[in-house]
Structure formats: C-alpha cells, structure tokens
Amino acid sequence: MGTTQLESVQEPKYWHLKTVLSEALDSDFAVGEVLPNERDLAARFGVARATLRQALEQLELEGRLQRRRGVGTTVAPPRVGVAVATAQHGWSGDGDEAWQPVECTMAVAPAVVAAALDVEAGETVHVVRRIRMTHGQAVAAELLYVPASSVPELSAIEAASGPARARSVLRELHRLDLDGQDRSVELGSARADDAKELDRLPGAPVLVVTTRYLVARATAAVSVATYRADTCRLTFGDSGALEISHAEQERKAS
After folding, report:
1. pLDDT-based confidence at 128, cuts 50/70/90?
2. Average confidence score pLDDT of the chain
C-alpha cells in the first residue's frame, strides 16, 4: 500500500481512497489480517483521519472489512453464497456442517407461517433454531418451523429442547422425500435476537430468505433464514461459482 496523490482527483477524496484501499485488500492482505491503525493509514495516504474513516466505513458496509471488538479492523472473508435458484431441491443445510443446531422448542408459529404450513391458528410446532458459521463467524440465523405431522416418528422420550432435540427433528425431517421448494428473498432489518447472534446492531440490513419445503404436494416445513447482508451474496445459477474480484469491479466502474 503506497502513497497515492489524491488532490487532483475530482471525486470525493474518501471515495477514491476507498478504491485504492479495496485494490490493496485484494493484493496485499490476507483474510483476517488486521489493518494498521487509523493514524498510520492516514499518514501513509496523506489524508485526514476523517477522510480515512469515511473510506473504511464504506468498505465495511460493502463487506470488505470487519470491525471486531478487541481486535481492530480486519479483512473480511469472501461472501457466503446463498443459493436461490428454483432448481434447488435439497433440504437446507443437509450434510452441511456450517449449520449448527442451537435450540428446538415447541411454540406457536407466526400467523403467516401457520397459514403456509396449513395448521390451525394457535397450534404449536417444532421451532428449530440454527446458526451458520463461516470462518468462525455467525453469518446467518435460521428458524425452521416443522409441524408435528411432518415428523410423526419423533420420540417424546428424547430431549425436550436444546441442540440434541434440534438434531432429532432435522434427522426425521430429512428422511422425507422432498418434492421441491419455493423460495423468496427480501431485504430486511435485523431483529434484536438475530442482531445479537449475528453481531450486528438491531435494524442493520439483512437478507431474509424464506423457504417452503414441499412433500407429497403439502408443506412439510418453512424456513426463515436471516443472513448478514454484508457477508452474503445471492447465487442464481446451478453452481454459484462465478466470482469477480472487488478490484476488477472498481476498475470497470471507473
């Protein structure tokens, strides 16, 4: 990261500095590496700390940087691909160790979920909560609503709650022959409980992915997964393997 002349640039100084920093992140830094402190970076680029702070804040919003308590500003890992293609037919997280069961309780589903599950208002269902971890960081939180009729073989003797109960519900659910799924994605705001688990402020932008799983032409389960918008990207193809570097995007846009 060398010194760059910014005075002759017509665009805002912080925006040009953001571009320079973004290119440096691709070439000079590794994922998880801690950046120099603001004072040293500002001196290196010959800008005021306020200008540097604007550039860093923009890169954080774009998911390039992360501010970690007790660590500092680090280079963020690549965004997690969230597959939303209609061709997807697997159970969410089936065989994926990144999804970690946290809890399972019996609770009344929200009215819109109850309608999708075709259960009576006020009827309790299994609610499985899972967290998706990437590079040691929580990037998504999921609530999976499963009516008792979808897992009739679930033993009442097993653990009443907790990760063990969650794994039991998932095991029984995944034994069903899945016909397909409907999926929608929308931009939302993090609720207090999701924000706490995802290390975001309440109201921070998130991607809400709602999936309805179909078995024998009926809804067997509904998933509402909340993804950090700064760490995830949507994929619509079969593989989701297309990657374009941030530096390449910046050069094409300029």
Report:
1. very high
2. 82
Terminal CA-to-CA distance of the chain, rounded, Å?
20
Cα 62 from Cα 125, distance rounded (Å) = 37
Q: Could you list the beta-strand ranges (E) of the chain.
A: 65-68, 72-75, 80-83, 99-108, 124-134, 137-146, 180-189, 205-215, 218-228, 232-235
Nearest in space to 146 (alpha carbons), one of 179, 185, 111, 114: 114
Q: What is the amino acid identity at position 220?
A: A
Q: What domains, with CATH codes, occur in the chain? A: 13-76 (1.10.10.10), 80-235 (3.40.1410.10)
- Among the listed residues 32, 29, 34, 226, the one whose alpha carbon sits nearest the alpha carbon of residue 138: 226
Q: Say what the pLDDT of residue 254 is.
A: 43
- DSSP, res 63: T
Helix (H) / strand (E) element for 253: namely helix 246-253
- Give the tens place of pLDDT for each residue, 140-155: 999 999 999 999 988 7
Identify whether the C-beta of residue 112 lies closer than 8 Å to the C-beta of residue 237. no
Q: In 148-167, which positions are buried (b, 16+ CB within 10 angstroms) versus exposed (e)? A: eebbeebeeeeeeeebebbe
pLDDT digit string, tens, across residues 179-221: 888 888 898 988 888 888 888 888 888 889 999 999 998 999 9
Closest CA to 211 of 186, 237, 174, 236: 186
Q: Tell me the C-alpha distance between 146 and 220, whole Å.
A: 7
Distance set, CA 239 to CA 58, 87, 210, 234, 235 (Å): 29, 11, 20, 12, 8
Q: Is the separation of the CB atoms in 224 and 197 below 8 Å?
A: no
Question: In 109-204, where do the E strands start and end?
Answer: 124-134, 137-146, 180-189
